[in-house]
Specification:
The radius of gyration is 17 Å and the shape is flat. The chain has one domain (9-61). The chain is an all-alpha fold and 63 residues long. It has 3 helices and no strands.
Amino acid sequence: MTTAVTITPETLTVIAASVTAFLGKKVRIRSARALQTPYPVDPWTQQGRLIVQTSHNLGQLRR
C-alpha cells in the first residue's frame, strides 16, 4: 500500500531558506519528494536514537 505525500509550497520555501542559510548562497529547489521508510519505526527505537543524538554536547567540542 502506497500513500502519496504532497509537499506544499510552504514546505519547499522553508527547505530552501534553511539550505540558503546553511550554504550562505541562494538556492533553487528543482525537485523534492518524500522518502518512504521500508519498515515501520518502533517508538522505542526512535526514542533511543533521539537520546543518543542529543547526548552529544557540541558546545564543548568547539572549545
